[in-house]
């Protein structure tokens, strides 16, 4: 009887852990895609004026932080930082 309880508890714990891994895989690819897109956009961006240069610098700092988060497997944070970097890249192009 005790063995069945331990087995059942182990099965439930395994299911919970595997669910967490599935979310990490999604965020892993989303993080990578966002970083790749942001670097491509940054390569083509030309900052307009001082405000554009500030936005460009913010984007570069956010991309560096996103890459660091990716290395530490903090994929949700990585994805968020890369999205914010893409926003600042667009602002840089607009001179804001």
TrEMBL record:
It comes from the Bacteria. This is Lipoprotein.
């Amino acid at each position: 009887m005790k063995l069945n309880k331990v087995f059942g508890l182990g099965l439930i714990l395994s299911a919970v852990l595997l669910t967490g891994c599935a979310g990490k895989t999604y965020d892993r690819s989303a993080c990578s895609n966002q970083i790749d897109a942001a670097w491509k956009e940054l390569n083509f961006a030309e900052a307009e004026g001082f405000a554009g240069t500030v936005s460009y610098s913010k984007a570069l700092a956010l991309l560096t932080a996103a890459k660091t988060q990716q290395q530490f497997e903090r994929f949700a944070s990585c994805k968020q930082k890369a999205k914010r970097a893409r926003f600042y890249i667009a602002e840089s192009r607009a001179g804001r």
